[in-house]
Specification:
Membrane topology: Multi-pass membrane protein
Number of helices: 26
Largest sheet: 8 strands, mixed
GO molecular function: transmembrane transporter activity
Distance between the termini: 37 Å
Keywords: Cell membrane, Membrane, Transmembrane, Transmembrane helix
Organism: Spirosoma aureum
Helix content: 40-55%
Number of strands: 26
Protein name: FtsX-like permease family protein
Length: 799
């Protein structure tokens, strides 16, 4: 019997090639997209979850409360890890880790190259499951002159991991480090990214500020005993800093708390000191999109199956007359749906394999179809079974319920309940499609806004070049800058401690006359060289730092946000003008405000522009050159910079970054979401239209004789097309009405993550509605015109 059912199902597929192809294509597209999304979600959830000690690993976080604000993050004092390990027996291991990336020049013999790494505590390899190919966890980072390198670095400089152990590497042409360990290259599902690690004590020696309890910046990671009570430790950590940081209690508070280490990647956002999402939001979003696409594909199958129901009705009637029970008929039709799904699954796997390289390129992942993993096939088969049962359930129940007497007498008519159900499916499909269309438009507009908005300075034709090697000496630095300014295509040169797209260091140590001593105010700070204003092209009231003023080493530039916070005013000038020349003190060093810059964005547009104070630093070490080039002459200017670099700094490879590229990196996630939303919205509409095509075909079949009668009585083709189309357009309009408030709510929540955002305007919903109606009308018109052009003689000859 089962074999006969299979033969019948296969014959139906072959006999109705067009409908079968549409069914399989719709299901395959839905499953292929859902499979790609599932693989992406699986990869996101796997980040940092490969460590054997994962349940015992935690990030130590800090919550700071001052000036009416609460901020939270991974920033901690550099001396915190060792002290925590001493004070709390629950903590087995503790290690510091520099959150900032260090690019250093490695030299081994004639091989010179830049490598990326960090500093980490001696317990690092005891905590994390990073296999060591040479060396031991106890000695890998125990020496200030030791270095742990990756397999890639070891093979690049020494040929293999074993040969690298004990060898010397000269870093930045300044210090020699001995290779104490070689670790396996970090897996793709690691949020950390480094090819070498240096000892933590070495980091403290290089950065004396990290030894102060009042200074924050590095990360602290700990590993607890398996039996440790995390809630109790979290409570004990909360007041821990008060006995070490003398500033706490003076209108300022700092509290430590724990975050599970694997959660750090997905739950990185904090609002008012509390965890407030992060990349987990995108995981949830795409999970919903995957379900939407599968539902749309299943509904499409239901509508297409229903459209062919009249042709299967007599088969059902005959089977029932000769004794077939309903359960067998249900099994037969669900079996047919499963056969369709299996065929679609094969096509979906082919599509996924074909699209995976492009998908990886778009998302920045290295996902593969894990065909050797049993879990992959279990999930795939489960998805196919679920899809087949969901898609085939309604057609199976509907067709098996037909009464054989009515079917065989030729009086088959479908009741209002069945009609409303099918119409409801179409409405549901287009609600989902409308949500994706509106979401796509809003995401595109917001991403385009943040990528093209005026930041307050010109980021185009601006290049960053690290100050390193010989250029760290004042004399060579001045020579390099002076020579650059003589090169064609170069307009201005300055230097800055941090890139202007990501200034993150802040302080509470700024005071001025009249400041409320009971209020501790956080102000972002950075150090720069001369000619900053000219190089960035920022508008300023007052002046820039200048070598003509010897006292500028104790003077300051501020932005308008700082000016508003200070609040100086006089009767003759505006706020900015009144501040120029006024006294201000930073870190106990008194000076004057020499200029007030117009507010410019120095962080992501997710964050409001914060108060900023800029000091002059004539010591060029640990800064970046900012080089402004003539528009259209960047290539020639870069060639000149590289030539000069090789002359003055030959032992360091030349490297540079474009300010515009660095800014775009801040919105990589949003850009990826925007592109994926475009593709998924298109596919949702495409699959939905396949369902609409099926329903319009079904309706045309149901009304064949009515159309014949109308034509005999003189109805025009246009009139018949309008008659058949209007009912479907009503469904699309209902879907637009339902979807619009849902889309507004969802996208308004998404936009709350941006401090600077575009408004959700009414025309977005109008445009999405016009697109949906237009696409639906084109889809419906095909069947409507076909039915309207049919010869009425053929329609009525059976009467």
């Amino acid at each position: 019997m089962l074999f006969n059912y299979f033969k019948i199902a296969w014959r139906n597929i072959i006999r109705n090639k067009a409908f079968s192809a549409i069914n399989i294509l719709g299901l395959a597209l839905g499953m292929a997209c859902s499979l790609l999304i599932f693989l992406w979600i699986q990869d996101e959830l796997s980040i940092d979850n490969y460590h054997a000690n994962g349940p015992q690993l935690y990030n130590v976080m800090q919550r700071q409360l001052y000036d009416g604000k609460v901020e939270a993050g991974r920033f901690t004092p550099g001396v915190l890890p060792d002290e925590l390990k001493k004070q709390f027996p629950e903590i087995v291991y503790a290690a510091g880790y520099t959150g900032w990336e260090a690019q250093m020049t490695f030299a081994v013999g004639d091989k010179i190259n830049k490598e990326t790494g960090h500093w980490a505590g001696a317990d690092w390899f005891k905590m994390f499951s990073i296999p060591l190919l040479a060396g031991t966890p106890n000695t890998a980072l125990s020496s200030p002159s030791g270095i742990a390198i990756s397999r890639k670095v070891a093979e690049s400089y020494f040929g293999n991991s074993v040969a690298a152990l004990g060898k010397s590497i000269r870093i930045d042409n300044r210090d020699d480090f001995q290779v104490t360990a070689v670790f396996e290259n970090l897996p793709e599902n690691s949020s950390d990214n480094y090819d070498f690690l240096l000892n933590w004590q070495n980091c403290l020696a290089r950065n004396p500020w990290m030894k102060e309890w009042g200074n924050n910046g590095p990360h602290t990671r700990i590993m607890l005993r398996p039996d440790a009570n995390v809630a109790n430790l979290d409570a004990k950590l909360k007041p821990f800093l008060r006995k070490y940081n003398k500033d706490i209690g003076k209108n300022f508070d700092a509290q430590l708390f724990l975050q599970a280490y694997p959660d750090g990647y997905l739950y990185s956002n904090f609002k008012n000191g509390q965890q407030d999402g992060g990349r987990i939001e995108y995981v949830r979003l795409f999970s919903i999109v995957a379900v939407f696409l599968l539902l749309i594909a299943c509904i499409n199958f239901m509508n297409l199956a229903t459209a062919r129901s009249i042709k299967r009705a007599k088969e059902v009637g005959v089977r029932k007359v000769i004794g077939a029970v309903r359960s067998l008929l249900v099994g037969q039709f669900i079996g047919e749906a499963l056969l369709f799904t299996v065929l679609a699954l094969g096509f979906a796997l082919f599509l996924a394999f074909f699209l995976l390289p492009s998908f990886n390129s778009l998302t920045g992942k290295h996902i593969s179809l894990q065909t050797t993993q049993p879990s992959f096939w279990v999930i795939l088969i489960s998805m196919a079974l679920l899809t087949g049962l969901l898609a085939g359930s309604y057609p199976a129940l509907f067709l098996s319920s037909l009464e054989p007497v009515r079917v065989l007498k030729g009086s088959l008519k479908f009741g209002s309940g069945a009609r409303l159900f099918r119409q409801g499916l179409v409405v549901f499909q287009f609600v989902l499609s409308m949500l994706l269309i509106v979401g796509t438009i809003i995401v595109y507009r917001q991403v385009n806004y943040v990528q093209t908005t005026n930041l307050g300075y010109e980021r185009e034709n601006l290049i960053y070049v690290p100050v390193e090697g010989e250029l760290s000496t004042l004399s060579t630095y001045k020579t390099f800058k002076d020579e650059l300014l003589r090169q064609p295509g170069i307009l201005a040169v300055s230097s800055m401690q941090e890139a202007p797209t990501n200034i993150g260091s802040s302080t509470g140590g700024v005071t001025w006359p009249g400041k409320d001593p009971n209020v501790n105010i956080e102000i972002t700070q950075t150090a720069v060289g001369y000619d900053l204003i000219k190089t960035l092209k920022v508008n300023v009231t007052g002046r820039d730092f200048s070598p003509e003023f010897g006292t500028d080493t104790s003077n300051y530039l501020i932005n308008e946000a700082t000016a508003r916070r200070i609040g100086y005013k006089n009767r003759t000038g505006g706020l900015a003008g009144s501040l120029v020349g006024q006294p201000i003190t930073m870190w106990g060093k008194p000076g004057k405000i020499i200029g007030v810059m117009e507010d410019f964005h120095f962080q992501s547009l997710h964050i409001p522009i914060a108060p900023l104070i800029i000091r002059l630093n004539t010591n060029p070490g640990s800064q970046n050159f900012l080089i402004r080039t003539q528009p259209g002459q960047t290539k020639q200017a870069l060639a000149s910079v590289e030539t000069l670099w090789k002359q003055l700094n030959p032992k360091f490879p030349f490297s540079y970054r474009f300010a515009d590229d660095e800014y775009q990196k801040l919105y990589k996630s949003e850009a990826v979401v925007g592109m994926l939303a475009n593709y998924f919205a298109f596919l949702a509409i495409f699959i939905s239209c396949l369902g609409l095509f099926g329903l319009s075909a079904f309706t045309a079949e149901q009304r064949t004789k009515e159309i014949g009668v109308r034509k005999v009585l003189g109805a025009s083709v246009g009139g018949i097309v309008g008659l058949l189309s209007k009912d479907f357009l009503k469904l699309v309009l209902i879907a637009i009405v339902i979807a619009s408030p849902l889309a507004w709510y969802a996208m308004n929540r998404w936009l709350q993550g941006f401090a600077y955002k575009l408004a959700i305007e009414w025309w977005i919903f109008a445009l999405a509605g016009v697109l949906a109606v237009g696409i639906a009308l084109v889809t419906i018109s095909f069947q409507s015109i076909k039915a309207a052009l049919m010869n009425p003689v053929k329609s009525l000859k059976t009467e």
